[in-house]
Amino acid sequence: MPSHFPLADRLQASTHQVENQPPSLENYNSYTTDRALQEGVKREGDTDDTALKTFGQWAGSSEAIALGFDANRHSPQLVTHDRQGHRVDLIEFHPAYHQLMQTAVEHGLHASPWRNPGPGAHVARAANYFLHTQVEAAHGCPITMTFAALPALRHQPSLLESWGDKITAPHYDPRNVPYFEKQAVTLGMAMTEKQGGSDVRLNTTRAYPIDQGGPGEAYELVGHKWFVSAPMCDAFLVLAQAPGGLSCFLLPRWRPDGTKNPLHIQQLKRKMGNVANASSEVELRGAFAWMVGEEGRGVRTIIEMVAMTRYDCMIGSAAGMRQATAQAIHHTIHRHAFGARLSEQPLMQNVLADLAIESEAATTLMLRMASAMDQQNNEHERLLSRIATPVGKYWICKRTPHHAYEAMEVIGGSGVMETHITARLFRESPVNAIWEGSGNVQCLDILRAIEKQPEVLDAYFAELAKAKGADTHLDRFIHQLQQQMQDTQALQYRARQLADGMALALQGALLVQHAPACVADAFCAGRLAEHNGLSTGTLPAGLDCTAIIARAQPAE
User: How many CB atoms lie within 10 A of CB 84?
Assistant: First the structure.
């Protein structure tokens, strides 16, 4: 049948014939399930990756990618009062956000290792979280906080008994109703106050016992919290000053009698990234809460939640690196410039290979930490996770912004546009480095761990020793690092230098054991040699960049 719009048809056909325009990366089967991830899951978790591939196919679909764009295009909106003037403190989200949350919860990203513990449980959950946050990272905030809250609640068995099943249930219920009317809940965290920031011991929020007080007992909280992410969660772990000192509390959005708890949202933060997630400033005006753990031991109680959120920051930033790498390689493979395919240009190959090895190093380290989480009854694994988690959180999260920018530059002008996912990746990239303890906090935590428990350093170097003799650059680098660690002068001043070295040595040791030689050789030569480059695309000559790029190439 002839078209009523022949000119439009011809224009559309001519557009489709442009060979130099890279096709969209949407709907490529398993493009997020890259080789490094698949091999790492089999190695660290010793599990079948069939389910992982299936989930990767969904994460790489046009449907999933569209959800991520919609959730960011339509930012959350605060509704403080209903039409009758009553406070509701309600956050309205686009349906795409709720769909992403539902998919994450139904796949256990919020609690599967706690609900179904066993060998490889943390590895499997980390791999799926890695895939899902490549679609959209911001909704990962309430998913992570729910996941991280349960270890802290173990300090108060009575609360764990009444809340545990709801926290781990594979259901998502976004209704603004009391927790006891729901089968499943999400949890958040409220620590930061404007006068103290990371120094939570300066918190001024007060907790007043309703009756006798003490662990598991009811209090009313009065104060202000400067930064509360995901304020639509059903409950929050909160720090406040009780009569016996800074303590941890579980504060529900609704009181046990079904009335609204006076947690008043003052405003939503306007953020450069993490747009789909609501972050707020709140006032507590006699808000009901139960004490969690011992009075005066609030930091010790909540620190387990903080440690798990830092672990997830590592996974989320590694995911951002993988998405950026996939976008850059896919673009250049389908783009011609200066007479040849862009991915075959020597300098571009240097850049792409550099992006790829940074991504694989991050993926390999985060999976190794997931494996350590699965083996906390093993002394070496427990000690290693204590020191390597802040090392990995510091390094991977800090490397992500530069990595995201370089991938955007590979794509060029189109990558700057909000219609391309790299623009969102770049805006999202600093978030994990700043949240849950910025770079300095992580470095000081490393020093604190070594001071309080020197055996964590022994466990760290024992892990590096597994790679001894595999690469001369790595051996020399580890030896220099050991000498630097023995120098106790100006440790705080040098803390970032030491953290850099610890991260690079650990990534190198893992890659020479588990990655193909082309990847491990490039990492050690490009990161650990005496004269390594400072910019992406400064790898030394003689490396097999073609093989590295092919390994990281998205499956089509």
Answer: 6
Which DSSP string corresponds to 322-381? HHHHHHHHHHHHT-EETTEEGGGSHHHHHHHHHHHHHHHHHHHHHHHHHHHHTTTTSHHH
Instruction: Say if residues 225 and 203 touch (Cβ distance below 8 Å).
Output: no
Q: Are 229 and 276 in contact (CB under 8 A)?
A: no
Measured between alpha carbons, how far is 224 from 203 in angstroms, rounded to an integer? 9
Rounded Cα–Cα distance for residues 160 and 172 (Å): 19
**In 3-state terms, what secondary structure has residue 512?**
helix
Which of 233, 238, 243, 206 minimizes the C-alpha distance to 222?
Answer: 206
The pTM assigned to this predicted structure is: 0.93
User: From CA 250, how far away is CA 436, in angstroms rounded?
Assistant: 19
The DSSP secondary-structure symbol of 202 reads G
Q: Please tell me whether residue 203 adopts helix, strand or coil conformation.
A: coil
Structure tokens at 352: 């792409």
Judge whether 133 and 56 are in contact, CB under 8 Å.
Answer: no
401 contact partners, CB below 8 Å, separation of at least 6: 426, 429, 430, 433
CB neighbourhood size of 5 (10 A): 9
Q: What is the pLDDT of residues 491-549, one digit of tens each?
A: 999 999 999 999 999 999 999 999 999 999 999 999 999 877 789 999 999 999 999 99
d(CA 5, CA 10): 9
Q: How far apart are CA 198 and CA 297, in angstroms?
A: 17
Residue with tokens 């792409």: 352
CA distance 216 to 162: 11
Specify the residue for token string 């623009």.
Answer: 423
- What Rg, from alpha-carbon coordinates, does the chain have? 24
Q: At what angle do helices 455-465 and 495-514 cross, to 10 degrees?
A: 40
Q: How many other β-carbons are positioned within 10 Å of the β-carbon of residue 544? A: 16
Task: Report the alpha-carbon distance of residue 503 to residue 398 in Å, rounded.
Answer: 11
Which residues have CB under 8 Å from 162's CB, separation 6+?
A: none
Question: How many CA atoms, within 13 angstroms, populate the side-chain half-sphere of residue 309?
Answer: 28
DSSP class of residue 171 equals -
Question: If pLDDT is split at 50, 70 and 90, which confidence band does 9 have?
Answer: very low
Quick one: the chain helix, strand, coil %, rounded to 5?
Answer: 55, 15, 30
